[in-house]
Amino acid sequence: MITQVPREDINYVWQQVEPLIIRALDDSYTARDVLDGIIRNKFQLFISWENDKVESAVVTEVADYPRKRILRYVLAGGDNLDNWLEPIQNKIEEFATNNYCQAIEVAGRKGWLRKLKGFEQKIYIMSKELWVKVAIQVT
After folding, report:
1. In what order do the strands lie in the sheet with 103-106?
2. Which of the listed CATH numbers 3.30.70.420, 3.40.1170.60, 2.60.40.1530, 3.40.630.30 matches domain 2-115?
3. For the segment 77-105, what is each residue's pLDDT rounded down to a tens digit?
4. For burial by CB atoms within 10 Å, which of 8, 26, 77, 83 has the most?
5. Is-contact 2 95, C-beta < 8 A?
6. Which helix (H) or strand (E) holds 84?
7. What pTM does this model have?
8. Which of 29-43, 91-105, 113-127 has the weakest average pLDDT?
């Protein structure tokens, strides 16, 4: 079964979701950042589950550009990809449509392009790390 987890229910599934999220993380987020984003309603969490076991988690966010509202996949992780990818993609597209999003964006490894139905590569994302001193304020 596929569902969007309401933020008030996150505590019921987080123990199962967190390991899936951790496997999908890079250095942009921590699992705590993701949890806080869901609680603050910045992110949405979609899961697939069977027999009370979460097998996948996809985190999305709605982003408003000056001329377009999009839904962006932030993180995705899980087991048995072929069991859940298409149904969860359909659920996310339904959410995007209901929230007036005009497109969906996914930034990820090249292999996702083969798996995601209806997606095309429009841009390349390049990254360069900058070593900047960051001031940390301790309160």
Report:
1. 2-5, 44-50, 53-64, 69-78, 103-106
2. 3.40.630.30
3. 898 888 898 999 999 999 999 999 999 99
4. 77
5. no
6. helix 81-98
7. 0.84
8. 113-127
